[in-house]
């Protein structure tokens, strides 16, 4: 297959360390080259020289909205429905409390028992504060758990381990049929997998800025609120940046009109500005091309793994059906942890999730077919040479 | 008075824009020169080359604790009682909920009606979640409002407008006498005004990283939890970085042993690393010298204002008693807003707070007596020339 047109030149916009084959864009995206100079400018010129005047002259004030508008284009939202701020966990807290308050009297939150843990923890905290129960079940069972006692559903669009995509329209419809509201976590979606929040009728969403969006380590996260809900939303982290007129220094809180009301404290300017600049890479890139490239890479990996790796005992733990496959592929293997470490020694980087998931992210903006072949050949070689069988590889260390 | 010894060389560690006289370190501290190269290294080397391995090799994981330990030395805390993370507003939410949960059955939160608004908003949100009432009164009346129905007191140590210092030992004792817990906001304290959280028996504190700590625009904030409380604390933003073993990816939350349990989502690495590096300027600097320099500058400003500016109608709105004066001085004047703009045109930067407070911050690490003289002469000159009387200065614009 030929490379897609709009993606032909995106790889060269990233810094790729010497000799590294990087399959962890689903954890921390590569550094866009442009952010080096950009961050230097933010620090030296905007902060160092501009000082407080940069809140206006460098438009620091509108960074959450400007980054949000760029993000909106990737997730099927209106520009004014998304703001970038805080962390995914904090944003989930804000939107889930808002959702629960929009459904008073209902007693349950339903969520995916296999969600990324921080989502489960925040769901539990919100439930505790509002005296609700949590029904944490396999994602596929969620529709069968919905009734008139459910206030909200929290579901990750692309599963962080298997990369299975849960159908946004279907889950949203089922949730609405029960009179509840849905919160989507798009951490493994935005920048790699298409979704259409508005068209699917979604209510709320949150997501992470440092994976396929390449915003840098611990980049600010984002949140989405459907325009039809925002004026009724009461979020609990009502800080001064969410006030209608922050610089009136009013003693009483009055929420800003739109999604701005979901902002809390002073925003992390350097991180937000880096994220916003990194998002410019997506300008002019078609979401269909991104999806096409992602499927091309994941399919090639699965086919090659079937051919070369199945005999070594590797099991593909991601959907074979491309329609429901995100942009990473997990293999399971009892020696998966050791194999990942030997790969890392060879500068081939993926990550590992308990208990035995070897995760390989295929970032449509920069990964290539050639890299996929190198990855599969390397795993094959490691198994043939038993290069995973070193005592130091048995001692677990955290992968992030 | 001679310059203090340990502060003799700190000014030159900051970038001072050409011709600027900067009196707004109480809003956004000057850029320490060292952060330029440092941030460039974090971005290019740690992110760009190290990628996910930098969570270990560059110790990204421990940034909240490492920055926290540096901060602890400035506020009279043990190194393990402070972590840097999130924003001041978010951190206030975490510690205030924790405080309220430690005092079940009590129905009130008492706070300073003139606190910085974001604190008031967060107090209101916590009260709403727990069905409590808020008693917002002038700070001095707080002790008279304390009874066995008060769960927590929230008070800013140095008032953001007047710079009045509220006695930490006395307010803490009064709070404890009523069986309640106290949360201090140290945003206008740390880095300029001494305080001793541990010695005064304080329970919780929060504060901002971008004022006298020079952490950069929207720098991460911090929080303090007295060691005696931490194991009983249940904070509501229980994200995966606060888990005892985040990389077990356990479905159920188990809080980390110490102050780490107050972390929430993935930390903003670039901002945290810049803050942590900026804090190194305080190494080897004595808190007494910082206080001495601060009082020298504020006293000189007040004395000069009395001599040169009182006749123009300026009123000193900060304490004349040095024992209760923080590191900024506010003047009040009906034309204050216009005067600040003309000062700004002359590259003399302070800020303005409604309705008529002209705030001048004197940052002990970099402001000089000579600058104070230039400031007072400039205001005097502006009044004599009526240079404030320009139509464009009557239109309000936000100062941050």
TrEMBL record, chains A, B:
Protein name: Kynureninase
Recorded GO MF terms: kynureninase activity; pyridoxal phosphate binding
Names of the cofactor(s): pyridoxal 5'-phosphate
Chain positions recorded as pyridoxal 5'-phosphate binding sites: 88-89, 116-119, 156, 185, 188, 210, 240, 266
GO cellular component labels: cytoplasm
Record-stated family: Belongs to the kynureninase family.
Function: Catalyzes the cleavage of L-kynurenine (L-Kyn) and L-3-hydroxykynurenine (L-3OHKyn) into anthranilic acid (AA) and 3-hydroxyanthranilic acid (3-OHAA), respectively.
Modified positions (N6-(pyridoxal phosphate)lysine) in chain numbering: 211
Organism: Paraburkholderia dioscoreae
Keyword annotations of the record: Hydrolase, Pyridine nucleotide biosynthesis, Pyridoxal phosphate
EC numbers for this chain: 3.7.1.3
Signal peptide: none
Subunit field text: Homodimer.
Highest taxon of source: Bacteria
Annotated InterPro entries: Kynureninase, PyrdxlP-dep_Trfase, PyrdxlP-dep_Trfase_major, PyrdxlP-dep_Trfase_small
Pathway in which the depicted protein is active: Amino-acid degradation; L-kynurenine degradation; L-alanine and anthranilate from L-kynurenine: step 1/1; Cofactor biosynthesis; NAD(+) biosynthesis; quinolinate from L-kynurenine: step 2/3
Pfam families: KYNU_C (PF22580)
Catalytic activity: 3-hydroxy-L-kynurenine + H2O = 3-hydroxyanthranilate + L-alanine + H(+); L-kynurenine + H2O = anthranilate + L-alanine + H(+)
GO biological processes: anthranilate metabolic process; L-kynurenine catabolic process; L-tryptophan catabolic process to kynurenine; NAD+ biosynthetic process; quinolinate biosynthetic process
């Amino acid at each position: 297959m030929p490379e897609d047109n709009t993606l032909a030149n995106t790889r060269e916009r990233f810094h790729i360390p010497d000799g590294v084959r990087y399959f962890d864009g689903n954890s921390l995206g590569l550094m866009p080259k442009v952010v080096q100079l950009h961050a230097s400018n933010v620090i030296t010129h905007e902060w160092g020289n501009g000082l407080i005047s940069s809140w206006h002259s460098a438009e620091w004030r509108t960074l959450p909205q400007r980054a949000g508008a760029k993000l909106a284009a990737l997730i099927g939202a209106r520009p004014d429905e998304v703001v970038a701020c805080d962390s995914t966990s904090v944003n989930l807290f804000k939107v889930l409390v808002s959702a629960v308050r929009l459904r008073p009297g209902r007693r349950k939150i339903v969520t995916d028992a296999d969600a990324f843990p921080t989502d489960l923890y925040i769901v539990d905290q919100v439930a505790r504060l509002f005296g609700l129960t949590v029904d944490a079940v396999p994602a596929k069972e969620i529709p069968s758990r919905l009734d008139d006692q459910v206030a909200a559903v929290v579901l990750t669009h692309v599963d962080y381990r298997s990369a299975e995509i849960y159908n946004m329209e279907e889950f949203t419809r089922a949730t609405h049929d029960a009179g509840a509201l849905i919160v989507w976590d798009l951490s493994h979606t935005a920048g790699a997998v298409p979704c259409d929040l508005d068209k699917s009728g979604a209510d709320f969403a949150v997501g992470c800025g440092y994976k396929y969006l390449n915003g840098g380590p611990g980049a600010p996260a984002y949140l989405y609120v459907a325009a039809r809900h925002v004026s009724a939303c009461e979020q609990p982290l009502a800080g001064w940046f969410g006030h209608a007129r922050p610089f009136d220094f009013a003693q009483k809180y009055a929420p800003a009109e739109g999604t701005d009301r979901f902002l809390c404290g002073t925003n992390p300017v350097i991180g937000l500005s880096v994220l916003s600049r990194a998002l410019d890479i997506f300008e002019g890139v078609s979401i269909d091309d991104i999806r096409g490239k992602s499927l091309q890479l994941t399919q090639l990996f699965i086919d090659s793994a079937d051919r070369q790796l199945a005999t070594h005992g590797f099991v593909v733990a991601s959907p074979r059906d491309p329609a429901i496959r995100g942009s990473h592929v997990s293999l399971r293997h009892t020696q998966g942890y050791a194999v990942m470490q030997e790969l890392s020694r060879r500068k081939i980087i993926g990550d590992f999730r308990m208990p035995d998931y070897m995760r390989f992210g295929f970032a449509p903006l920069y990964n290539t077919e050639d890299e996929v072949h190198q990855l599969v050949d390397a795993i094959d070689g490691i198994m043939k040479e038993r290069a995973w069988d070193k005592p130091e590889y048995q001692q677990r260390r955290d992968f992030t």
